[in-house]
Amino acid sequence: MYAVIKTGGKQYRVQPGDVMVVEKLDGEPGANVAFGDVLMLGDGDAITLGEPTVAGASVSATLVETRKGEKVKIFKKIRRQGYRRTKGHRQIETVLRVTAIEGAGKSETWDGVVDMTTKAMMNARARNLTHVVAALEAAAAPVVAAQAAAAEGAAAPAKKAAPKKAAAKKSDAE
Fold first, then answer.
1. Distance, CA of 66 to CA of 169 (rounded, Å)
2. 145 falls in which pLDDT band (50, 70, 90)?
3. Which of 49, 68, 74, 78 gives a 20 to 30 Å CA spacing to 148?
4. Nearest 5°: phi and psi at 2?
5. Mean pLDDT of the chain
6. Does 108 lie in the same domain as 130?
């Protein structure tokens, strides 16, 4: 079973288990995201087209990470005038793992476990940068602990308020 969804002004063909990179979406890593703009559902030869969307259809996904995309260079030049300008841009993007598709009286889910390893972590491991891997694992530890607690059904630990700063002492000369 597959679906065509619309997000960020683009259309994507997805199946349960697919990893897709879309325009930036709000949410923390591990959060569930639901797409209601399903334009088409397909199951073998049976196709359900929406007008413009399929009624009651939805696609569920898990947010893996939000990151910056590849660098794009913008270079302007006017020949023989000494005019050259270089700029760059990195679009913020979100990585999702599709977990379920529902609609047209059918549903299909993905039975695998969502791997929360970020692209930065995979690149650091591939280049054997142990100090970078250790720093990334330390930064991801609270997120992993919260996900484990949520999976067990326990509430995440409450955050403590920052200690208040002591007021400055006033002198008698003032």
1. 45
2. low
3. 68
4. -140, 165
5. 86
6. no
